[in-house]
Each structure stands twice: as structure tokens, then as C-alpha cells.
Write a structure and sequence with these properties.
The protein has 116 residues and is mostly helical. The protein is 55% helix and 10% strand. The protein is elongated and about 60 Å long.
């Protein structure tokens, strides 16, 4: 079955897609930007760049980070970050539901390997 990816382009030139949303979900789970990046096979630098880009695209930060020290560093999603994930996943579910029959039709005419 084909997959559907949703990318949202904002007026401020910011973008949000499945990779950034997955990074936010991993940050929420791991409690750390670097650990989230590692769990996605992404470099520390790239994870931080994406978080910075995400935060710049919204009026309020979606991720807040605390630098390391005696108690260690970490990162958490703000309420807005959690809200963004909920909205994005809802959009994704509705889009998949609305396009399911079309995706099946595209699969039927694609060059993908056929099962015997």
C-alpha cells in the first residue's frame, strides 16, 4: 500500500512534516534532544538545527532545553509542542481516511512487485 506524507508550509516560510513531528515525539519520549536524535539515527547537530528551526517557526517555543550540569541537561515539549503533535496527527489520520480508496487505486496501477 502506498504511504501518504503530509507537509505543511506556513506563511512564514516554516515547514512541518513527518520528520520534524517524529523528532518532537522522540524528544517527548527521551527527554533529550541528543537522545532523540540518536534514536532516529540523526546527528546531534542536525537534531539541534531542526529544533531551532521548529522553534523559530512558531510564536512560542515548542521545545525547551536545559543545558547539562550536575543534574544533567534535558529537553521537554511545551504545551504548544504537544498541541502541535495532536493537530498534525489528526490531520494525518483524516487525510489517510479521505484518500484510502485513491491510494489503493494508485497501488493497483503501480509497477510494484505483484504477489503470486
Amino acid at each position: 500500500m502506498p504511504s501518504l506524507s503530509i507537509r505543511i508550509d506556513f506563511d512564514n516560510e516554516g515547514r512541518l512534516g513527518p520528520g520534524k513531528v517524529a523528532l518532537l515525539e522522540h524528544i517527548a519520549k527521551e527527554g533529550s534532544i541528543s537522545a532523540a536524535g540518536r534514536s532516529m539515527n540523526m546527528s546531534y547537530k542536525r537534531a539541534w538545527e531542526l529544533v531551532s528551526e521548529i522553534n523559530r517557526s512558531f510564536e512560542e517555543p515548542l521545545v525547551t532545553a536545559q543545558t547539562g550540569g550536575r543534574s544533567g541537561g534535558g529537553a521537554v515539549l511545551t504545551q504548544r509542542g504537544q498541541e502541535l503533535i495532536r493537530h498534525y496527527r489528526a490531520i494525518e489520520r483524516k487525510a489517510l481516511s479521505a484518500t484510502a480508496s485513491h491510494l489503493k487505486a494508485l497501488q493497483a496501477i503501480s509497477r510494484s512487485p505483484r504477489r503470486a
